[in-house]
Amino acid sequence: MLNRVELLGYLGGDPNYRVARNGLPVSNFRLATTETYTQNGEIQEHTEWHTILCFGKLAELVRDRLKTGNKVYVEGALRTRKWDPAPGDPEVERKVTEIRANKVIFF
Questions:
Q1: Is 87 helix (H, G, I), strand (E, B) or coil?
Q2: What is the mean pLDDT of residues 7-11?
Q3: 8 Å CB contact between 5 and 78
Q4: What angle do CA 96, 59, 61 make, to 5 degrees?
Q5: What are phi and psi of 47, to 5 degrees?
Q6: pTM (2 decimals)?
Q7: Domain containing 21 — which CATH number?
Q8: According to the model, what pLDDT value does residue 83 have?
Q9: In the prediction, which pLDDT does 29 show?
Q10: What mean pLDDT do residues 88-97 have?
Q11: Fewer CB within 10 A of the terminal residue: the chain, N end or C end?
């Protein structure tokens, strides 16, 4: 089986950095990819936003080297997380799909 994602885009904001309870460094950032196509003779654009997660040394590199607007290449795998709503929230299960990066190339 194969679960592989390759993206080339621009950072929508500075990376967020934290150290998890187990001591593992974690960085996450939003990456914008834009697709350009022609529809009815007019050029159209569609921007998709992706949440990228980095762990360990890669998280520290991302924290130190990336800033809003940087162009980056990301290689990784799709991960979907689910969690229960907080007390008082509507009883809807929360779900998010993210990319767990194993390679980030800075331009």
A1: coil
A2: 98
A3: yes
A4: 140
A5: -105, 130
A6: 0.87
A7: 2.40.50.140
A8: 78
A9: 98
A10: 78
A11: N
Mean pLDDT of 52-61: 98
Q: Which of 82, 72, 60, 58 is nearest to 13 (CA)?
A: 72
Buried b (16+ CB within 10 A) or exposed e, 4-40: eeebebbbeeebebeeeeeeebbbbbbbeeeeeeeee
> Which residues are 39's β-sheet partners?
42
Residue 70: give the domain boundaries. Answer: 5-106
Spatial separation of the C-alpha atoms in residues 55 and 87, rounded to whole Å: 30
How many Å apart are CA 107 and CA 82, to the nearest integer?
Answer: 33
- Structural domain total, the chain: 1
Residue linked to tokens 């936003």: 49
